[in-house]
Design goal:
This protein has about 130 residues and is mainly alpha-helical. The protein has 7 helices and 2 strands. It is flat.
Amino acid sequence: MTQQDLGEDILSSGELATLFDRSPARAVQTSGAAVTAFVLGLAAILAVPFSLWMTFSAGLAAVALVASIIGLARASRPDVAGGLLASLGLVLALGTLALVGLRYLGIDTAFGDGSEATIRDGLDWLNGLLPKP
């Protein structure tokens, strides 16, 4: 719709400006619990392949599980976003807890232990690129 379609009398009287002033956009915030759940769930799923970090990843997954439930509850409000982040955090936390549970049942899910030397060599190479103090 162009300015000619609106008519000059509507634009000159300011009725259109008052219409836009009366209907402001709602301020939407992202739930902090949803962001926390996603970040902790991601850290937990990245740490679970290593047997040394099993307890740490289980603890992160437990906190992410609680935070995702809180995040889903808060994201159900109309002025709060983050439902997808909370859902992804929930899935990552449950996946981590499932892998830890399989390890307790005797199934070896620590597939990252064999790649520790490769990761260490890569990190040493990256550290070599930085200037020495």
